[in-house]
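User: Here's a chain of 125 residues. Predict its fold as tokens.
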Amino acid sequence: MTERQKLLAKSARFLDSARLLVGSGDLDSAASRIYYAAFYVAEALLDAKGLSFSSHRAVISAFGQHFARTSEFDPGFHRLLIAAFEKRQMGDYLSETHFSEEEIEELLNKARDFLEAAINWLKRG
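Assistant: Prediction complete.
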């Protein structure tokens, strides 16, 4: 299994974990798993272009530059990465977040769409 495949598999596992966490009412932890799932997708896509970065912000920025700005991927996926990063920060570091189940479910669904789009794009590439 290649590194890219491992990242995509980990993303899928994290999305499954997020679903369980939403079901148990742990929305903060679900937000964190959703962010990391999307982050791993972005890393896999950047890897396909021979790119690697050492910080989360650099990965998010590079995805925007190399995929969203060029319209190779829907710019909504870049917005997903940004929103998920912010929610992960809040969920991990604030004592109270007041996330709604609906907003976390929406984020989860968008992250699943991102993973599917990446898998399809990589198959074509």
